[in-house]
Design brief:
By secondary structure, the protein is of the alpha/beta class. Helix content is about 35%, strand content about 20%. It is built from eight helices and ten strands. An eight-stranded mixed sheet has the order 1-2-10-9-8-3-7-4. The two termini are about 15 Å apart. The N terminus is likely disordered.
C-alpha cells in the first residue's frame, strides 16, 4: 500500500477501493437510499454501496482525528490555564470543476451529523466569496472566474478566522448558480459548529512565503483535515460536458438563468460550446491553480470514469 514516486517513497498510504472499504469496521450506516439520492449532485453517481465503501471508512477515520484534536485542545487549556471556547474542526474539500466536490461535502455533512454525540456540522462553499460579477467585469476577470484572483480572499480569511475564534455568528455570502452571481445582502450564518466543511476549487492553494518573514495566512491554514477529489482530465471534461447538456434542458431554460442563451443549442452545438468553455477556462485553472495543490491534501480520492472512487491515498502521520 506504499507507493514509490521517483527515487523515494510517497508520503501517502495508498489503498485500493476494496482495501479502503475494509477500514469501515463496525461503523453503522445511518443514511437511507433516499437520503443518499438527495445529497447527490447532478450527474454524480452516489449510492449506498459507494457510501459504505468510501465515506463510512472516511468518517470513522475523521472521528479519530476529531477526538485526538479535542484531547490536544483540552491539554493545551490545562497547560495554559485558559478557558478558551472549543474551536470547530474544519475540513477542506478541493478539486476541479465537475469533480464532485459538492456531493462529497454533503454526504460527509450528513454522515458526520449522525455520529452518536450528534455534532453540529455546517457546510459552506467558497463560491459566496467570489467577487460580484459587476466587479469581475470591471476588472476584466469574468473569463477568470474561479481563479484565485476572482475571490475576495480577505473576506474569506476573516470568515474562517471568526469561525476558528468561536465568534458568533460568522457570516458567509450566498451565491446563486442560477444567476451565476453573489446575491446581495444575503448571508448564511455559521454559529459555532463542532465541525465545518469548506468546499471550493482553490482552498488548498498557498503562495510563496514573504522574504521579510511576515505571516501571511492561507485558507488551508485553518483546515484540520483536507480532501482532494481527483480524476483524469479527459474524464473531467466528459463529466463537465454531460452536466452542461443536462442543464441545457433544465436550469438553463429558466429565463433568469445566466446561461439561458444556451438552452436552445443543439446537442452538437452544446458539446462544442461546453468543450470550448472547459478548455478556455476550467482546464487552465486546473493546470495553473488546482492540480498543483493535490499533494497538499491529507486525503486524495481518485475517481474513475463512472464517478466511483477507485483509489484512496491517506497522508502518513
Amino acid at each position: 500500500m506504499e507507493q514509490r514516486t521517483g527515487d523515494g517513497l510517497s508520503p501517502y498510504h495508498v489503498f485500493s477501493r476494496t482495501e479502503w472499504a475494509e477500514r469501515r469496521a463496525d461503523t453503522p450506516m445511518t443514511l437511507t437510499p433516499d437520503e443518499v439520492t438527495r445529497v447527490r449532485s447532478l450527474h454524480d453517481r452516489l449510492d449506498i454501496e459507494e457510501v459504505e465503501d468510501i465515506y463510512l471508512p472516511l468518517t470513522r477515520l475523521l472521528s479519530f482525528y476529531v477526538a485526538a484534536t479535542q484531547r490536544l485542545f483540552r491539554a493545551q487549556q490545562a497547560f495554559l490555564g485558559t478557558e478558551d471556547s472549543k474551536m470547530p474542526y474544519i475540513i477542506g474539500i478541493a478539486g476541479s470543476v465537475a469533480a464532485g466536490k459538492s456531493t462529497t461535502a454533503r454526504v460527509l455533512q450528513a454522515l458526520l451529523a449522525r455520529w452518536p454525540n450528534v455534532p453540529k456540522v455546517d457546510l459552506v462553499t467558497t463560491d459566496g466569496f467570489l467577487y460580484p460579477n459587476a466587479v469581475l467585469a470591471r476588472e476584466g476577470l469574468m473569463e477568470r472566474k474561479g481563479f484565485p484572483e476572482s475571490y475576495d480572499l480577505p473576506a474569506l480569511l476573516r470568515f474562517l478566522s471568526d469561525v476558528k475564534a468561536g465568534r458568533r455568528p460568522a457570516r458567509a455570502p450566498v451565491y446563486s448558480h442560477l444567476v451565476y452571481d453573489v446575491i446581495p445582502n444575503q448571508w448564511v450564518e455559521i454559529d459555532r459548529p463542532e465541525i465545518l466543511i469548506v468546499e471550493g476549487l482553490n482552498v488548498l492553494q498557498a503562495g510563496l512565503p514573504p522574504k521579510e518573514g511576515k505571516a501571511i495566512p492561507y485558507v488551508s491554514d485553518f483546515f484540520d483535515f483536507s480532501i482532494y477529489l481527483d480524476a483524469d482530465e479527459t474524464v473531467l471534461l466528459n463529466w463537465y460536458v454531460d452536466r452542461f447538456l443536462t442543464l441545457r434542458g433544465t436550469a438553463f431554460r429558466d429565463p433568469k438563468s445566466y446561461f439561458h442563451r444556451y438552452a436552445t443549442l443543439s446537442d452538437a452545438e452544446a458539446r462544442k460550446t461546453a468543450t470550448a468553455i472547459w478548455r478556455r477556462i476550467n482546464l487552465v485553472n486546473l493546470h495553473e491553480n488546482i492540480l498543483p495543490t493535490r499533494q497538499r491534501a491529507d486525503l486524495i480520492l481518485k475517481k474513475d470514469e463512472d464517478h466511483l472512487v477507485e483509489q484512496v491515498a491517506l497522508r502518513k502521520l
